[in-house]
Structures are given as C-alpha cells and as structure tokens.
Amino acid sequence: MADHEDSTSPPVESMMEKISEKIHGHDSSSSDSDNEKSSPSAFKAKVYRIFGREKPVHKVLGGGKPADVVLWRNKKISAGVLGGATAVWILFELLEYHLLTLVCHCSILALAILFLWSNATTFINKAPPHIPEVHIPEDPVLQFASALRIEINRGFALLRNIASGKDLKKFLSVC
C-alpha cells in the first residue's frame, strides 16, 4: 500500500513544478535550449497561456463580437444578453408561458400602442405614425396553394394504397 503511494507522488510533483514554472516565468532545469532563451516573445506567449495552449481563448471562440460577449469584454451587451436569456427562461420555464401565447400578446400590445399613438397625436399636435400598407401578391400564393394541393393528393393516394391491403410489407412498416 505504501509502495503505491510513493509511485504516484513523483509525477504529481513534477506536474506541479511544471505548472509553477510556467506561471512564474523562470525555469530551473538545465535542459533549456538556446532557441527559447533567444526568442523572448515565444517564451512570453507560453507563459501567459494556461496549460500551454497554442491560441488565445478569444480566437478559439471565433473572435469578433460573439467572442467579446462570451468573454465579457463589452459588459453592457453581455449583461443584456444574460438578462434577456434569464427573462426568456423565467417566462417559459418558471411561469410556463407558451411561445404562441407570447407572440399573440406581443402583437396585441403593439397594435394597442399604435392605436393609442395615432389617436394621441391629434391632442399633442404631432404627425401620426407612418404605417405602411402591406399587399400580398396573388400569383405566389396561388402557386403555393397548388403545390400544397398536389402534395396532399399524393399523400392521400399513398394512404389509400396502404389501406387497400395490396402490399402487406408496406402496411406492416407503416404500423
């Protein structure tokens, strides 16, 4: 039992020595090469990266704004993302709110705000809000309806063939 404890302690000590050497920036071993001593930038790059990583964390996360948000470099945006995610979690998990209900309530609220805003502009002598007219073209809607009708008819024909009992293998695979 004592032999087992002695056999595991030297690797642990050597690992701790390596980590402390990386952190403190000095190396007491005599096996250093001349290249590491001559290029201090390569030595500094390894000193400041934990566990001897090749790339910084910002680059590993893809760089740019998403990495800045994850690493909290822009604190306002990161706090906003965290607050928004927390609000969504509270709505959907704790309050058991549903997405369709949320979308409907938001659209009702937006409609009520626009209605009140357009009516309040007459009392405060401001221009009413510009609400654009929306038109759906007829041709794409008809093409979509026609394609949908064709696919539904194909599905009904397939179900009819399966239910007629002509192909037992297909019937059993559907069941």
From TrEMBL:
Composition skew (Basic and acidic residues), residue ranges: 15-37
Entry-linked InterPro entries: Reticulon, Reticulon-like
Membrane topology value: Multi-pass membrane protein
Annotated Reticulon domain residues: 66-175
One Gene Ontology term from the biological process aspect of the record: response to bacterium
Keyword terms, alphabetized: Endoplasmic reticulum, Membrane, Transmembrane, Transmembrane helix
Localization: Endoplasmic reticulum membrane
Region named Disordered: 1-40
Residue ranges of the TM segments: 98-117
Organism: Vitis rotundifolia
Entry protein name: Reticulon-like protein
Gene Ontology cellular component annotations, sorted alphabetically: endoplasmic reticulum membrane
Matches recorded under PANTHER family: RETICULON, RETICULON-LIKE PROTEIN
Domain of life: Eukaryota
